[in-house]
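Anyone able to model this chain together with GMT?
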Amino acid sequence: MNIGIVCYPTFGGSGVVATELGKALARQNHKVHFISYQQPARLDFFSENLFYHEVMISKYPLFDFPPYETALTSKLVDVVQFEKLDLLHVHYAIPHASAAVLAKQILRQKGINIPVITTLHGTDITLVGKDKTFEPVVTYSINESDIVTTVSQSLKEETYEHFAITKDIAVVPNFIDFERFAKKKKDHFRKAISPFDEPIIAHTSNFRKVKRVEDVMHIFGKILETRPAKLLMIGDGPERANAEQLSRELNTCDHVRFLGKQEAIEEILSVCDLFLLTSENESFGLAALEAMACEVPVISTNAGGIPEVNIQGVTGFLRNVGDVEGMAEDALKLLNDPAMLKQFKHNALKQARNFDIINILPQYIDLYNQALESIQI
Ligand code: GMT
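re: yes, here you go
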């Protein structure tokens, strides 16, 4: 197949899922064309089956707000025609689904019928999508897509609850590539972070409000009151400065390292013992799955789709959003019981294997075939 993938080029979240999906499709000899405003973060190598088309926006002085959606739509029309794409798979509703639906309508006038597969990732529904500013366009774009998928059952239910959706939604969970995400031997790195073999706790995110990174800092503060430990904060975003300040106020700085954005997250996760995910909302929690693939159990909230990934009492523990005391208590329960921690590490890997890309990729390919069949009828 000749597949167009539209995504955000950023580290983490929907951009990573889209890029990893495209790479896996390319390995199976499909041609994959990425269309975005910047080279996707994990697309930094050459493959004969991978292509990148950059969306350029005119800087005309009239445009206080550069019309990205219009530029993207035009680019899609151009790439579909010139590269003879079979389908468009767009990740994140705004503005990717709406641009693809408009491109589809323009192409129909040119005698080209291109199916659009839209994957909803979370905040496009749970935060921004519900906003009145976007809601009518999001609803229309979902209903006009040929196939719609969500990354969890929870996100599917939330989409039906908040939007007037007339289409079936297929759940295709996020996935992990075990060729990359597997525990690696990094003893020297572990020793550098934790010289006295203190347990290492990690948090990865884009440090947006929804992640509640202040809860991570408080939980870690409570752990330190009871026993030694180290905390690695991976990623960057608007709440990082507040988290650093809080670490000073809680007097935990000597045991916390803010690592910023990291390429080789799997190497860092490989030396960790516990992962904290305190999000207020999380449609899936890919960061938790990546940790689990590296044999790291998860202390998390029970928001959104997280319980579909992190299993209570098996791969970690879950508490209500904001229950800092409870999450600290659970973390200590695991850290203070080496046998239980070892069992949970084993369970985490086992559960992560259910999301192996080898099992998830065929689900997307089936949906692509369905979309192609539907336009031939
Ligand atoms: O987590 C974020 O803020 C980024 C966001 C995105 O769209 O890039 O992530 C969402 O998509 C990920 C991939 O499907 C999911 O694993 C995340 O749970 C989801 N984030 C939220 O729902 C907050």
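The radius of gyration is 21 Å.
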